[in-house]
Specification:
The chain is an alpha/beta fold and 188 residues long. Helix content is 57%, strand content 13%. It contains nine helices and five strands, in the order βαβαααβαβαααβα. It has helices spanning 15-26, 33-42, 46-56, 63-74, 92-105, 119-133, 140-154, 156-162, 176-187, and strands at residues 3-8, 30-32, 82-86, 111-116, 167-171. The chain has a five-stranded parallel sheet, with helices on both faces. Helix 2 packs across helix 3 and helix 4 (63-74) packs parallel to helix 5 (92-105). The protein is globular. The structure holds adenosine monophosphate. The site of adenosine monophosphate has 16 residues, from helix 2 and helix 3.
Amino acid sequence: MSFRLIILGPPGVGKGTQANIIKDTYNIPHLSTGEILRNEIEIKSDIGMIAKNYIDDGLLVPDNILLKIIENNISGANSSNGYILDGFPRTLQQVKDLNDLINKLDHTIDIVVSLTADEDELTKRLIKRSEESGRSDDTADIISKRQKVYWKQTAPIISSYKKTGILKEVNGLGTIQEISKRIIGAIK
Ligand code: AMP
């Protein structure tokens, strides 16, 4: 099966975990912009050095940097079978940039999965994750900032995808297996 999917949802809802399961189930590459940026920081690239300041502050990295990353990753042969975008788009500008890019590449997005969960549960999950992740942005105050950034800058893109008719809202509460079952049900 070949398709292009966007997975959306607030920090801590389990996008990365679920995107990995979809990747293994359908053999489609998983592109996590957060992971790509963390790798860039690790290798101390120019992009990494710019991104680090924003990430450590719980803020979004500028749209033009993200567009470059996505363009490099979805135009290659690896993506001919489709892809899962995790963590992108995150602003209305990124939705527009992605639309322009996929039109240029003659791609279409088949489905947008929006994972939902209430904020208290998410905070609990993130605090728990912070004990294991070693991520510089998984501290209590930065978690709270990232959640605010999500509701202000990212949540509005859900209504924009709702209008296109390809949005599927999936309950993100439950066990990992329960949630992936719901997602796979929504894809079929
Ligand atoms: P994530 O692993 O998806 O939670 O992303 C970690 C951090 O990377 C975010 O808090 C942002 O600072 C940055 N980031 C990841 N994706 C994007 C994006 N699409 N736009 C802007 N910043 C991003």
